[in-house]
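Possible regression after last week's pipeline update?

I re-ran a chain I had predicted before the update to compare outputs. Posting the input and the new output here so someone can diff against the archived version. Not blocking, just want to make sure nothing changed silently.
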Amino acid sequence: MKKINLWIAGILMLSMALTACSPIIEEPVEPMPNEPEDLYPVEEKPAEPAEDVSDAIGGVAYITDPSASAEELKNQAASINAFALDLYQKLAEEDGNIIYSPYSIFQAFLMVYAGANAETKAEIAEALSVELDDENVHNLMNALNLKLTTLPEHLTEDTQPLIFNVANALWAQKDFHIEQEFLDKLSANYASGLKLVDFSKAEEARQLINLWVEAQTNEKIKDLIPQGMLNEMTRLVITNAVYFKGGWVHRFDAENTEKATFYLLDGNQKDIDMMHTGFNGSALVNSDLQVVQLPYEGGTYTMAAIMPTGDFKAFEASLDQDTLTGIFEALQAGFASIQLAMPKFKTESSFGLGDQLKALGIEQAFDAQLADFSGMTGEKDLYISDVIHKAYIDVNEEGTEAAAATAIGLSTTSMPSQSYEITLDHPFIYVIYERTTNTVVFMGRVVTP
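New output (post-update):
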């Protein structure tokens, strides 16, 4: 496999003229043996776009030093986390494992929001928990992107850096009018250039965008846009890609991985590969929960694995922002000696998010008669036709690699005082988040490793 910079890809595609997709959830991918390559590959230049794609940019240069206070960034993160949990409740209605990137979906919809007006804009603002008509939200998204993708200055030379990158692009029908103000807003805050394509050649356009997605995700997300999604009515596709890869601070020794029992929701059991390690770190253990924090090396990211000790479905249904914030706060104070057993797992999910987003209140955007994206084109001639999200995660002894893509189509240290043995042998929820802002970039559950 080529050693290229790894991205967790979240791609929001705004094509313009199809009908919303129904949800699809793929089966979990069985864990594969560790690949005999370094966790952190040599960075290579991403693949160049095909010659028949022309580029244009907004009239405003990308802002590399956006102004935002720590409190403002935490508030922006809180909006993302609220959206993450609201969407989780909708996705959890389906069976099976889950992996998705709320960070990717949220950011992609912010770019859609930049071109929305009237009630369409108000519905998106409410679903994203952002203040209506607060244009500073784009500046804050830019500032949060830069904070989350910038490595800490204190890293030593021998530290293997964590990788988290974000990329944005717009794909528009050539000769189709896009408002300059909309282009400027996205280029200034999202570094999103405009690529002109010909959607009348739908298969060629689909392959071009899918290749871009694949390149940004280290080939983890392939064929994001299915055949038939793009057609001669498509006018614009907005893509957002994020990529994450990090090694555990406390690695699991592969020699200690052994078969163990995992208890499924239906009462059955399954033999799985269980990893083992011991370390001093943060945990929360009480009569209701077992939670362990697994920090990644080379940055400020961590995974929190949350296993209810009682009824998983009841806990899942009650999981809200206050509960998650309380867990994060408890982990900051819950220093302990930990013996951890955790399953290896690899999961891929694919969702059509149209129904879930309508349930969250984004309704007019999907209605060809009511949608108002006049901020993009100057006319009320576009509506969201498809929202597709695809995500991937691989958790093993070395660390975590995750990728996600979203497509929206529009058409016309002290000594520990506690000691815990934590065995994640029942269904659990996990979040990958940045510790200084508590921004959740990935969220999911494991019900069958």
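Follow-up from reviewer: compared with the archived run. Residues 254-345+415-446 form a domain with the Alpha-1-antitrypsin; domain 1 fold (CATH 2.30.39.10). Marking as no regression found.
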